[in-house]
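User: Modeling request: complex.
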Amino acid sequence: MNENVIEAENLVKYFDGRCVLDGINLKVPRGCIYGLLGRNASGKTTIIRILLGLEPPTRGQTFLLGAESANLSAKVHSRIGYVAEGHNLIQNYTVGRLIKLCKDLSPHWNDKFFEHLTETFRLPMDRRIGQLSIGMRAQLNLSLALSIDPELLILDDPTLGLDTVARRQFLELAIDLIGQQGRTILFSSHILSDVERIADRIGILAGGKLVVDCALEELKNRVKKFRLIFPESAPENLYLTEIINQEIEGREIAITVANWNQQKQAMLGTFQPSSCTELPMGLEDIFIECTKPDVAPLAHL
Amino acid sequence: MFTLIKREIEDHIAYFLGGVVLSSIVIVLSIWAAYNYKDEPPVYSIGLSIPVIVILLIGFPAMGASQMYTDRNRKISAFLSALPVTRGRILIARIVAGILAILTALVPLTITATVLRPLLMPPVPIYPGLIFDMFVTVFLMAFACYCLGLLTGWASSKVTPTLAGLGLTFVLIPLVAVKGFGLHTTVILVLFIIASLIRIWQKFMSTPL
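Assistant: Request completed. Predicted assembly structure:
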């Protein structure tokens, strides 16, 4: 069972003449928890909406569970759970009515599990959705998305607007469920610590391109940052390929390099720096380096 | 599909109730006129048809526009599309609910007209299929108005389509007045409805939700 659950081929999207997605190629295998990262307006939600057939692409094709996004059948939809950014539920419905609607429309509704979730979250059945707090709406949305027993779960910034406790509760529940049931998850968030905790593969969107697409551990191993101090003034060019970012100040260079290997290390040695210190990089540091506006075009990781 | 139709009916129950109330008023007035003004029935028949025209002109386009407008405004289709439902089914359920609303208003009126025909109609020979032709024409006219409402509601942010929709609604009523009930009117209305439905389908299926 190694097939790709999510596929995007040369995906291009323009909004009012502005290129938001520029030739995105993405493959998410079954069982993977994929963290999709990017700055505001980098196109994360657009990719998700195109994948779900809510938005047409300008060019390219996308597939979910082997079916083309533009023509997803009800049967394929029944295998996909979706938590939308901002939790767009029907505002004038009561919680009970919305649950009944989802239950009646879903062929694989898990009643027992849903009851467990509503008890955990203490959702008030008689309140209107519009009267719920953002946290409660997020919990309701997640409960609805999980109770249809989906093979693929798409979470678009699900913790947006949640307080720390609600976010932690939300994530722990998500982690439990993910671990138990081996689902494929596409997860977009601005809170990188959440993504780092859950995801096993990372994609970073910058300038309309997917500049990073690899396993989280591999990403941490392959992107390195060094502080180099030279006896005299620092050389202007270190002749290294795949430099993500480079800052020169007097005798000092701070350099972030992708696909770090022995050849690059040897090349760096030829400049004979008086000191070379590797700076520890977390996902947040890598993200900041990769999404800087003046970063040179990065080879696909 | 049944769940989606049920949802549409529950969300727009006011239009169904409005149709029932108005047709009930027309029925009561018809019975009252039939028994009290036996000698001058045509005047009262014409008088009683006014509320029906009001329903057609305002009620059904308003229902169509309201269905589409609330959908866009509350992002209902965007939510439903994430469930095991396709856009096509959402639209079909919506149109079926519209047809049911029209029938809810028209069927009792047709039954009443059939029963009271000998009392309400002028004492001249009429062909046997008149009531059926009237029902078909009025139903098609109401449905055409409803389709215009759907189109208008989906493009609610634009003034031109809204005005064009309203203008077309007001053109449909004189069409029946000029052409009368029968095959010609039916063909024109059916063609109009087909064109409207194709346009709604194309817009609803291609617009970002």
